[in-house]
Amino acid sequence: MRDINFLTETNAKPIWHPMAHPAEMRANPPKVIMKGEGVMVTDIAGNTVLDAVGGLWNVNLGYSCDPIKKAIADQLSALPYYSGFRGTSTGPSIELAHELCEWFQGEGMVRTFFTSGGSDSVETALRLARQYWKIRGQADRTKFLALKKGYHGTHFGGASVNGNANFRRNYEPLLPGVFHIPAPWTFRNPFDETDPERLAKLCARALEDEIAFQGGDTIAAFIMEPVLGAGGVIVPHESFMPLVREICDRHEILLIADEVVTGFGRTGAWSGSRLSGVKPDFMTIAKAITSGYFPLGATLIGGKVADVFEADKTSFGAIGHGYTYSGHPVGCAAGLAALAETKRLRLNENAAARGIELAAVLEGLKAKHAIVGDVRYKGLMAALELVSDRTTKKPTDKKTMAVVSEAAYEAGVMLRVSGNTVILSPPLIITAADVTKIGEALGAGLSKV
Ligand code: PMP
User: Fold this and answer.
1) Parallel, antiparallel, or unpaired: how do β-strands 40-43 and 33-37 relate?
2) Domain 31-61+346-447 is in which class?
């Protein structure tokens, strides 16, 4: 690799970074991360900080998981790649598909379609949902419903079901036939409802209303994150997903649970669907499937959908969809090792226990700092929404957010800022002492503004 001076000098010049303005990145180049160890990362200037972002919601096992590193090295040496397209397969992909179906048996998942990441997984679920209805002879069922504030990746299908204007406007026109209903977000919602259970009912009623308006027999699927992540950690009341399931069932609409963030213990349960005892028809997973060590994702398919595809006698049943890296043997080997470690360390239990401590820390910060308008959390996904005025809920500006995150960095903790929200998604292996450290760094940041 070239030397540090070259990297520092060149930094953002040849790269367009995701979710950033190229000119802004050139003017204010990103931190260059050189090393990771445990839950800590070290930047090019030699600062070592606790990674409260967990990579990007994915490095659940931290940066020193030797079993994953070894599995990757071993598989690279045995077979670095072979295709999973019709006619060939690989050992690790067979084994991981089997493991995933067992792992998510409680959610009713029976088949695995491998992808290269979350956006691919969402796209796969949307496409298979439409195909399901073609096979069933209901070709009119092409529409999708989704939640405002939901995040489902950046492919055209995923961007179309996305519920955040920032990810839509620049790329319109998006997929036709996609409609959004309000998210059960107590801090901001069109009903001014602050009670989570009542709000869940109102949002479910909005779904019912939209279905009546569109015609249930025109809708292929409803997609939702069990806990909304990138939209600012919006935690629906536990009654919401069961209500959605019941409505979808009544109208025969497929339910896609986007578990790209919530999939491997982050919420304190093994999946977000399991939190509320719901069996979706598809689950999209990625990110922590390899703890971020290799790009991999999967769309898991529920029994009802699998039966229809596998019993198909029409001309619609062959899957005309897939990726060069669907079932990448190195990714699947990484996935097998990550899954084994995740189970062995019972990461869901640590996420739940540390999550309770983190929640107490965040509530304490809210009580102390008027700038904190709202705190939201479930397991080890959490957010602080900052406002310049608690009554009007006016969001804080970009500059204020930068001051908070820089001060926290100086205090030894990496945070992620999204709009006026600080998002926390640390590795699931963090300790109680790490939680305290995150709280102290956040406190240092908030004290500066
Ligand atoms: N769905 C959800 C819920 C996500 O959070 C993300 C990524 N943050 C995606 C899909 C897209 O995943 P990827 O960035 O791996 O394409």
Assistant:
1) antiparallel
2) alpha beta
Cα 204 from Cα 266, distance rounded (Å)? 25
Residue to mutate (ligand 1; options 261, 290, 293; most atoms within 8 A of CB) = 261
Nearest to 90 by CA among 328, 398, 438: 328
For residue 284, the CA-to-ligand 1 centroid distance in Å is 9
The closest residue, in CA terms, to atom 1 on ligand 1 is 152
Phi, psi of 407 (to 5 degrees): -65, -40
- pTM reported for the whole predicted model: 0.98
Of the candidates 404, 304, 293, 414, the one whose C-alpha atom is nearest the C-alpha of residue 342 is 293
Per residue in 302-337, pLDDT (tens digit) is 999 999 999 999 999 999 999 999 999 999 999 999
For the Cβ of 122 lying below 6 angstroms from any atom of ligand 1, the answer is yes
- pLDDT attached to residue 431: 98
Ligand 1 in contact with 153 (CB < 6 A)? yes
Element (H, E) at 133: helix 118-135
Q: Is the ipTM of this complex over 0.85?
A: yes
Any ligand 1 atom below 6 A from CB of 151 = yes
Tell me the CA–centroid distance for residue 162 and ligand 1, in Å: 11
- Please name the helix (run of DSSP H) or strand (run of DSSP E) that holds residue 384, with its range, or none: strand 381-389
Domain covering 69-344 in this structure, CATH number: 3.40.640.10
SS3 71: helix
CB of 163 within 6 A of ligand 1: the answer is no
Give which of 378, 158, 361, 155 is closest to 271, Cα–Cα.
378
302 close to ligand 1 (CB < 6 Angstrom): no
Ligand 1 contacts CB of residue 233 (under 6 A): no
Residue 152 Cβ < 6 Å to ligand 1: yes
* pLDDT tens column, 111-167: 999 999 999 999 999 999 999 999 999 999 999 999 999 999 999 999 999 999 989
CATH 3.40.640.10 range(s) for the chain read: 69-344
pLDDT in tens, 340-377: 999 999 999 999 999 999 999 999 999 999 999 999 99
Which atom of ligand 1 sits closest to the CA of residue 117?
Answer: 15
> d(Cα 308, Cα 254) in Å, to the nearest integer?
13
For 175-231, the DSSP string reads -SSEEEE----SSS-TT----HHHHHHHHHHHHHHHHHHH-GGGEEEEEE-SSB-TT
Identify the CA nearest to 92 among candidates 325, 270, 283, 345: 325
Residue nearest to atom 12 of ligand 1 (CA): 118
Closest CA to 333 of 102, 124, 77: 77
